[in-house]
């Protein structure tokens, strides 16, 4: 953590990280808190995971609260935003991070699997972004705290551009997030609300544990990553801090890929 409070890039800001109780979300929550933000760590199924992240943040001298909501349910999202307003008065940063995979070969994919993933990954981001934007507009600018009136960061994936057989529900949700993010960025820029995405590649979290189970699987995964290492949640936390801070004040409507080069078509590195 920086020495003096004044050097913290997110001092006096309130942040919500959906799905903050594990994986990339917990890395992002810890990184925002280390820069001085008060962080609401959202969870859907794991109060224990959220409590653990809050504990870690507090042990490092930061401030955090656990907050429950299944982001695919409108009434739960509304209740979560009400709770945040009651506790802290407003919100400055939303990290729309909750996401699931529910994989299946296309021919066997049930409507339930399709809808589960679209509901959490895409509709959940819409509902949370709409409530955050409404709060930013209600509160109005606070230039002493941040140049932008509000910041929304959508957790996308390399699969917003890389097709993914066996995961069409997931890849479709991420392609949808790209247009959701860009259209919101276009519509909300006049209100000085910045909207961007992070496109992580393979980050070591529970969501892709099955692709890293054995040394052979890990080796095969590494062939897709020119930079030669699997990412860590902290790699994404650093990107989120930058996108939430005034350092990126002129950046809106962009996906920042943090993927060790996975989107560089590594299969073409050797003469195609
Ligand atoms: C998925 C991971 C996968 C990575 C790269 C992510 O969006 O959730 O399971 O390892 O993309 O393919």
From TrEMBL:
Main EC class of this protein? oxidoreductase
A GO biological process held by the record: monocarboxylic acid metabolic process
A Pfam family assignment: adh_short_C2
Q: Which GO molecular-function terms appear in the entry?
A: glucose 1-dehydrogenase [NAD(P)+] activity
Q: Which CDD domains match?
A: GlcDH_SDR_c
PROSITE patterns xref list: ADH_SHORT (PS00061)
Into which family does the record put it? Belongs to the short-chain dehydrogenases/reductases (SDR) family.
What is the name listed in the Swiss-Prot or TrEMBL entry for this protein?
Answer: Glucose 1-dehydrogenase
What organism is this sequence from? Hymenobacter rigui
Its ancestry begins with:
Bacteria, Pseudomonadati, Bacteroidota, Cytophagia, Cytophagales
């Amino acid at each position: 953590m920086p020495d003096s409070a004044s050097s913290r890039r997110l001092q006096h800001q309130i942040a919500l990280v959906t799905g903050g109780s594990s994986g990339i979300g917990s890395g992002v929550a810890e990184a925002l808190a280390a820069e001085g933000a008060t962080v609401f760590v959202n969870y859907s199924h794991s109060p224990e995971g959220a409590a653990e992240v809050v504990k870690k943040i507090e042990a490092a001298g930061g401030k955090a609260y656990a907050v429950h909501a299944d982001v695919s349910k409108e009434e739960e999202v509304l209740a979560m935003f009400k709770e945040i307003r009651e506790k802290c008065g407003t919100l400055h940063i939303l990290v729309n991070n909750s996401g699931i995979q529910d994989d299946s070969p296309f021919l066997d994919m049930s409507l339930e699997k399709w809808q589960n993933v679209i509901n959490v990954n895409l509709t959940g981001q819409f509902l949370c972004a709409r409530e955050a934007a409404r709060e930013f507009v209600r509160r109005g600018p606070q230039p002493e705290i941040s140049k932008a009136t509000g910041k929304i960061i959508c957790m996308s994936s390399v699969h917003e551009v890389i097709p993914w057989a066996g995961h069409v529900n997931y890849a479709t949700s991420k392609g949808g997030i790209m247009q959701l993010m860009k259209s919101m960025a276009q519509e909300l820029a006049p209100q000085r609300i910045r909207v961007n995405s992070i496109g992580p590649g393979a980050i070591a979290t529970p969501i892709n544990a099955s692709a890293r189970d054995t040394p052979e699987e890990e080796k095969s995964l590494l062939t897709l990553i020119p930079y030669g290492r699997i990412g860590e949640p902290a790699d994404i936390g650093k990107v989120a801090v930058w996108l939430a801070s005034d350092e990126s004040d002129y950046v809106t409507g962009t996906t920042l890929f943090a993927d060790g080069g996975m989107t560089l078509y590594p299969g073409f590195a050797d003469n195609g």
